[in-house]
Amino acid sequence: RARLRNGARNGARLAKAYDYVVVGGGSAGCLLANRLSRDEKNKVLLIEAGGHDRRFWIHVPVGYLYTMYDSNISWAYHTEDQPGLEGRSIGYPRAKVLGGCSSINGMIYQRGQAKDYDTWETEYKNPGWGWKDVKPLFDGMLNYCVDNPGDMQGGGGEWRVESPRVSWNVLDKFIDAAEEVGILRIADFNHSDEESVGYFQVNQTNGVRLSCYRAFVHPLLNKRKNLTILTDANVRKVELKNGPNGKLEAQGVWVGNSEDDSFLIQANKETILSAGAINSPKCLMLSGIGDSSDLESVSVDPSLHLPGVGKNLHDHLQIRTVFRLDDPGAWTLNQATRNPFSLAKMAFDYAMFQKGPLSMAPSQVGLFARSSPIHETPNIQYHVQPLSLDRFGEPLHKFPGMTLSVCNLRPTSRGEVKLQSANPDEQPIIDPKYLASEADRLVAAESIRHARMMAETATMSKLLPQEVLPGPAVQSDEDLAKSASNISASIFHPVGTCKMGPSSDPLSVVDHELKVHGVDGLRVVDASIMPAIVSGNTNSPTLMIAEKAARMILD
User: Fold this and answer.
1) Half-sphere exposure of 184 toward its Cβ, with a 13 Å CA cutoff?
2) pLDDT higher than 60, residue 474
3) Beta-carbon neighbour count of residue 456 at 10 Å?
4) Contact 20, 270 (CB under 8 A)
5) Alpha carbons 265 and 285: distance in angstroms, whole number
């Protein structure tokens, strides 16, 4: 049953119409709700399919282990069988809770590389999206509370960034090893686009997860009468009508848990889809906007032929190289979780001081490097962890272990999202087509070789590392790429399915103002609009997109 929460009071009565209707209470939606409701004259409705974020494990950073696949707060999607992953289907969690994926993600603060945004502007022809344009947006929302801030003070915004509150000797050794091979130790990856290594900074408040709901919406409760939040409410489709100029107009959304009990909420000014790279294209397609032949094949009447909807799906795929550490002094989470005294200390440290292993992000140390000299800037990213296991969801190994996960920052493989049927309650078809391109398979092989090079440094050798995955017998490019397909998993950074670009681009869905081509009063504002994925974690770039969109909407 849908639940209401109002900026002034709980239990508010749902109006029939609002100025702005925002679909999706995730990262982009929460920031939009904040910015659009600053003017008390704007009546704003934020609709979230999931519920509130009161669950304990949402707020404890290590709780991602319990929340990511919890069907109460995650759609628990899965991909089609992937030929590039040896026929495996992998879990594809998308959050279903206020805060969206910022309530279950890795909390890593990353902006990407300046060239990413310059490419959006020049190669993909999106004026106003170059680095010089978007950098002030990142800075303005930032609340930079790290140990050594340098020249990144931020703009006193809501998006708090902290230094990690835990360190591991094995991770410090890895950082030393990177320096040994000429990679720069750095306190903040966002200062440089060079090859660099260090601890990740995180979106936390004194060791507690900071989601976008907690940063941008929760502080407004009981303060803004013009902001209403509707939770546990499924948007079934966008209401479309022919406007006086013969162009389609979005007039709001249909909400309900079935066709029979659905009702229309009107948008007087704009309808904004911020449901993410899977559910935003799904909503467009259910509304009749997409490839006409694909829509007709699942009995959806086409309203507008826009073939790029759901296409251009791409993501960061991590290759999990695993090493056993035979040094008797090596201490990792593998042993700590089997030691009752260590477990008790973890609980005590977090309960009393909000520090220690329970405060840590899924990955603590990062490294950005070039897998080969042909790349102008780093094209691979490490997520280094003081733990090891065969596959996600399985127990940690009994031996001291370390995982060097490496992802291709700029994959060339492209997949798609499609409807399985006209039923809004059915999961869409998610087909990322991982490792489909020869270029991606080559980078996969190079990534494993790079991880081996790191393990073979004089510094790391002191830990006596023994390769477990993929195993030292795997040597040729072909065999390495094949092994990568067995030990890879998504980092859950899907983008691109409502591609931003001019109408002359047959795969573009929105223009540079994020307006859907051919429809008045409808925008898409989330990671789906990225024409190409950024070279790093995607949550903060998604917030930047929402910040820019809010300014364009209000101008």
Assistant:
1) 13
2) yes
3) 13
4) yes
5) 19
Distance, in Å, from the CA atom of 106 to the CA atom of 211, rounded to the nearest integer, reads 11
How confident is the model over 121-139, as pLDDT tens digits? 999 999 999 999 999 999 9
Positions marked catalytic: 493
Looking at residue 450, its pLDDT comes to 98
Between the alpha carbon of residue 53 and those of residues 159, 231, 413, the distances in Å are 18, 11, 35
Strand 227-231 versus strand 3-6 pairing type:
antiparallel
Residue 18: which of 268, 232, 242 has the closest Cα? 268
Mean pLDDT of 398-427: 98
Q: Name the residue with tokens 């364009």.
A: 552
pLDDT band at 146 (very low <50, low <70, confident <90, very high): confident
What CA–CA distance (Å, rounded) separates 73 from 92? 13
Q: Tell me the C-alpha to C-alpha distance, in Å, between residue 402 and each of 48, 397, 457, 472.
A: 38, 10, 15, 16
- Beta-carbon contacts of residue 396 (< 8 Å; ≥ 6 apart): 333, 334, 337, 387, 388, 389
- With bands split at pLDDT 50, 70 and 90, how would you rate the model's confidence at 9? very low
| End-to-end Cα distance, the chain | 36
pLDDT of residue 284: 99
The Cα-based distances of 88 to 74, 84, 230, 431, 432 in angstroms read: 21, 8, 37, 12, 12
Which helix (H) or strand (E) segment holds residue 5: the answer is: strand 3-6
Helix axis angle, 169-180 to 438-455, nearest 10°: 110
pLDDT per position as a tens digit, 262-319? 999 999 999 999 999 999 999 999 999 999 999 999 999 999 999 999 999 999 999 9
328 exposure class (CB count in 10 Å sphere: 0-12, 13-18, 19+): exposed
Separation between Cα atoms, residue 440 and residue 438, nearest integer Å: 5
Phi then psi dihedrals of residue 436, to 5 deg: -75, -25
Q: Is 461 left (phi over 0), alpha (psi -120 to 50) or beta?
A: alpha
Q: What is the pLDDT of residues 488-541, one digit of tens each?
A: 999 999 999 999 999 999 999 999 999 999 999 999 999 999 999 999 999 999
| Tokens linked to 295 | 């829509």
Spatial separation of the C-alpha atoms in residues 234 and 128, rounded to whole Å: 34
State the pLDDT at residue 526. 98
**Residues counted in the chain:** 555
- Tokens encoding 52: 């509130």
Contacts of residue 431, Cβ cutoff 8 Å, sequence gap at least 6: 79, 80, 82, 313, 415, 416, 417, 418
Inter-helix orientation angle 131-141/114-122, to 10°? 130
pLDDT for the residue numbered 8: 38
Across the chain, mean pLDDT equals: 95
d(CA 269, CA 96): 26
Region of 290 please: left (phi>0), alpha (psi -120 to 50) or beta. left
Helices then strands, counting H and E runs in the chain, come out as 15, 28
